[in-house]
Structure formats: structure tokens, C-alpha cells
Amino acid sequence: AQTVTQSQPEMSVQEAETVTLSCTYDTSESDYYLFWYKQPPSRQMILVIRQEAYKQQNATENRFSVNFQKAAKSFSLKISDSQLGDAAMYFCAYKPGEYGNKLVFGAGTILRVKS
Amino acid sequence: EPEVTQTPSHQVTQMGQEVILRCVPISNHLYFYWYRQILGQKVEFLVSFYNNEISEKSEIFDDQFSVERPDGSNFTLKIRSTKLEDSAMYFCASSDPRDNNYGYTFGSGTRLTVV
């Protein structure tokens, strides 16, 4: 069974600084997708960034980027120029390549942003 | 941008009562899901639904749970006899067959409180 591990229960970052959230996963599949979701206090799940395992290039979305290390099964999220609105719970999630399969979530990392 | 709509946003029910949580997925999506998040814990998969039947379910999704797509637009989760431990945030999600790498679109969630 696939598992997703987020080893940092909580992280803090100063406003305008950079922070990296860690995620590792375990799978025997070669085709899969990885995601980072943001959950603010409203508890809505918001997709931040996604990565296809077959793509070597790391995904980037504005201030958010990933470091995808397929051999190490590592998928970290880097947030640059952190803003107060980035404060939230962040979940890493895995999905097998076959369409429709469920997302497997990590336990989450609470990100606090200090002004 | 299309949204997944969930109602109600918050429901309080007495233990042993039946509850129905409602969701309107994005209209051209074909896969539908329910996830659960107990406060402070990870997001857990409950069930996936495709072509008018359950395609996968987790151990949590026992005989007390059922899902239905009664009219081609709504997607419901029924809990027959609620327990205190059913108190959680319930998320509906749907996915698009043409955008397999885009993950899922989540609704805003229904907070279920069993007293």
C-alpha cells in the first residue's frame, strides 16, 4: 500500500523568507502524481501544486515550487517570499497513475508565518 | 471557475440519528469521492463512485455508510446511525477524466458534529 509521510508537524517562517516543507512517499508504481494541498483555517482544501512522476522538471507555480527526487521518493514544497496568507496546514498527497484512484494524504504540516 | 458545492456547511445531530450530506460535483466530472477529516488529523478516503456504483471504499466505509447519485447532479453520503466518533469534516471531491494529472476539486466541506 502506498504511504505518504510528512515528518514536520509544524514549521515557522518569517514573512518574506523561504521555507521548505518535506514529504516522502512509498510506492512500487512508476506512474503516479503528487500534490500539495493547502488547508487554511476555513478548512477548505486548495490545490497548490502538482507534479507528474514521469516529468523530470520540477513544477513551479509563482512563489511555490517543488523539489521532486523520484529515486529518493521525496517531494518537498518550497515557498518563497512567504506571506501571512500562506499560514495554513499543508498536505502532501499521492495518486496512482490510473485514473480515478484515491488520493493518499500525509498527516500534514502546520505552517506559521511570523510578521 | 467551476466549484464543488457541499451542503450544509455545518450539521449538528444527535447520536443514533441518520444524516445525509449533500454534494453537487462539477458537471462534466465522472468520478466522485468522499473524504473525512477528524479534527487535527489527516484526511482519510472513504469512498469513490463511478458510473453509478462504488468503485472503491475504505475500511471506514462500513454498513452504516452509503452513497447515492439520485438525480444525475447530486451526490450524497448517508450515515444511518451516527456515533460520536463520526464527528468530523466531510469533504466531497470530483475529478475530470480529461485532466487526470490535475488531482481533484474539493468542496468546502461539511462539519458534522454528533452530540
How are the SSEs placed, and which strands pair?
The complex is a heterodimer of chains A (115) and B (115).
Chain A: E1 3-5, E2 10-14, E3 19-21, E4 24-26, E5 32-39, E6 46-52, E7 60-61, E8 64-69, E9 74-79, E10 88-96, E11 104-105, E12 109-114
Parallel strand pairs in A: 2-12
Antiparallel strand pairs in A: 1-4, 3-9, 5-6, 5-10, 7-8, 8-9, 10-11, 10-12
Chain B: E1 5-7, E2 10-13, E3 19-24, E4 31-37, E5 43-50, E6 53-57, E7 65-68, E8 75-79, E9 88-95, E10 105-106, E11 110-114
Parallel strand pairs in B: 2-11
Antiparallel strand pairs in B: 1-3, 3-8, 4-5, 4-9, 5-6, 7-8, 9-10, 9-11
Return the average pLDDT of chain A rounded to an integer: 93
Measured by residues with Cβ under 8 Å of the partner chain's Cβ, the largest interface is:
A-B, 25 and 30 residues
Structural class of chain B: mainly beta
For this entry, what is the oligomeric state of its chains?
Answer: heterodimer
Major sheet of chain A, described briefly? 6 strands, mixed
Spans of chain A of at least 5 consecutive residues whose pLDDT stays below 50 are none
- Radius of gyration of chain A using CA atoms only: 14 Å
In sequence order, what are the helices and strands of chain A, one letter per element? EEEEEEEEEEEE
Let me know the number of strands of chain A: 12
Specify the structural class of chain A.
mainly beta
**What would the principal axes of the Cα set say about the shape of chain B?**
globular
Write down the secondary-structure element order of chain B.
EEEEEEEEEEE
The general outline of chain A is: globular
| Most strands sheet of chain B | 7 strands, mixed
Total DSSP helices of chain B: 0
| Model regions low in confidence, pLDDT < 50 over at least 5 residues of chain B | none
Provide the β-strand percentage band of chain B. Answer: over 45%
The count of β-strands of chain B is: 11
Distance between the termini of chain B: 36 Å
The averaged pLDDT of chain B comes out at: 91
